[in-house]
Amino acid sequence: MTSRDTFRNALLGAGFALAAGPVLAQSSVTLYGVADDAITYVSNQKGHSNWYLRQGNLYASKFGLKGVEDLGGGTSAIFDLQAGFDLNTGAASSSGLLFNRQAFVGLQNKDYGTFTMGRQYTPYYQFVGPLASSNWLTGATGAHPGDYDGLDTTIRVNNSFIYTSPLWYGVQASAMYALGGVAGSTGKGQTISGALRYANGPIALAAGYLRMDNAYVNPVSTTNPAFDSSSTASFAVSAVNQGYVTAHSVQHIAAAGDYTIGNLMVGVNYSNVRYLPGSRSLFTDTAVFNSYGAIASYRFTPAFDMAAAFSYTMASKANGISSAARYQQYSLKEAYHLSKRTTLYAVQAYQHATGQTLGSKGAGSIVDAAPVVGDSQNSTPSSTRSQFVGMAGIAVAF
């Protein structure tokens, strides 16, 4: 072998070593998602019964990309990009937002915890939500009326930082802060959230706090009022809370606990939501909503399970309302798992409303409370005091 050959082989060996170098770090990117659709019957949508196809009931229809790269020393880089879509039309769930559900990047370490940045769900939801009826049944028919308390996936926060601690004897903590990003007043439109959870054997407990501030960058519309779109957070709006969307800030507190005995799970949950007025709000008194809930789930066989839930929601007497709104909701779910990825399901829910609340124009527009089952009927409340929803569908995860 000549010196030229030796030199050439050395260069080739170095090249192969350099090319192989990045492979030594373990990394992966996963495409994942769910396709979920159901034939749905609603007893009353603004005065009429309806049969239609509704997607994203048992699980939200979505696709995403998530990845992890092992950086060594117990530290990994992570990201998650998640987009929702309407299975029946092919349209994106949110116009103008590609990854409307989540979009974040960060670092995680087994000893020091996880830090992420981007558009994210709150610690309030991520810790308390899994123990609530919206998780055990489905948000479509199991969430508290209109998901006004955000224990389903209707609240997402832009420009947010989240730190989540590692587990310590079953205890874990998480905190969020979202920058309003308004020049000269960074705190405008900010969001703050924190939560704790404990899991040990059959017991699971969680409590969370969330405060969403209104940015008030744009003028408040008296004809079509809304929480300012420049705010870091957005939340579900329905006939339950439409009169309070111009709040200066919205404050959530929730707690939940589940106990599992063999194939049986029983749980309770509580939430308190306050709509705090400011000088630009279209109402004057703080509005308070409280929900009390109970859930149970039983797995009859590895393939078949059922769940049931009851919730009672009550509003405070404020803003000229003497007979405050009350909502009673009863929910059922039956699921048959054809495989680990494919599930046939049926859900049913009934809600009855009494009392009064504010209409969409705020103070001075007192209206009868209208039922909205779960968060499936937020834009289609009943014109009567009751509403029933039934669905039969299929969900396939990939």
UniProtKB/TrEMBL annotation:
The keyword Membrane applies. Its main location: membrane. Residues 17-354 form the Porin domain. It is a multi-pass membrane protein. Residues 1-25 form the signal peptide. CDD domains: gram_neg_porins. It holds the Pfam family Porin_4. InterPro entries: Gram-neg_bact_OMP, Gram_neg_porin_domain, Porin_dom_sf, Porin_Neis. It is found in: Cell outer membrane. Keywords: Cell outer membrane, Ion transport, Membrane, Porin, Signal, Transmembrane, Transmembrane beta strand, Transport. Homotrimer. This is Porin. It comes from Paraburkholderia kururiensis.
